[in-house]
Amino acid sequence: MQYDQGGGARIASVGLLVMGLMILSGTASAKHEPKNYPESGKVIATGLDQHDKSHPVSGGNGTPVTGGGTYTVYSHTYKVETDTKIYELDCGKVPMFFHTTGKGCGGQKEIQIGDVIQFRIEKDSAFIPLPDGSEQKLRVLSQELKPESKAGEAKPADAKP
After folding, report:
1. Confidence at residue 135, expressed as pLDDT on a 0 to 100 scale
2. Between the CA of residue 65 and those of 62, 70, 98, 111, 136, what are the distances in Å?
3. Percentage, residues of the chain above pLDDT 90
4. How far apart are CA 41 and CA 75, in angstroms?
5. d(C-alpha 108, C-alpha 90), whole Å
6. DSSP string, 77-145
């Protein structure tokens, strides 16, 4: 009768492989923690941001035969008022064909004046959660303190010196 002497080594190898996969899956799940959206604000205005685009040039030896020139497209912007700041956010979606204005942000229900949105700020971008669990990135065009916040730092008119 013959015995397979490599069986113990195979079991150990499989065991190490399983343990390694468990550690990697635990690390991967730790990286996918739910996002936190600490900012909350009301959309108080909408607008459009202008983007200049170039038509592609085609031809021979670098000389344009067809195409060329520039055209203007627009993306939606949103002015969002939080407790202390006012943000201007650019959706960044520009049209692909035959239109001058891109779609609005917010998923299937586009953001409207009066909507209260949750978001987080990271560097020069704002991220809003979408109903499908993903998030949408908007560019922060500007942020400023609310006028009440600026005035709140000054002395009240009835204060005595």
Report:
1. 93
2. 9, 16, 22, 42, 39
3. 37
4. 21
5. 17
6. EEEEE-SSEEEEEE-----SSS-SBPPPSSTTS---TT-EEEEEEETTEEEEE-TTS-EEEEEEEEEEE
Strand 63-67 and strand 116-122: the pairing is unpaired
Domain range annotation of the chain? 39-147
**Residue 114 neighbours by CB under 8 Å, 6+ apart:** 42, 43
Residue 79: what pLDDT?
97
Nearest one of 19, 35, 39 to 27, comparing CA atoms: 19
CB-CB contact of 135 with 127 (8 Å)? yes
Average pLDDT score over the chain? 78
Q: Per the structure block, which two tokens stand in for 97?
A: 């064909």
Look up residue 73 and give its DSSP letter: E
DSSP-derived secondary structure letter, 156: P
pLDDT in tens, 51-93: 887 777 676 665 656 666 787 888 899 999 999 999 999 998 8
Which tens digits make up the pLDDT trace of 31-41? 566 789 999 99
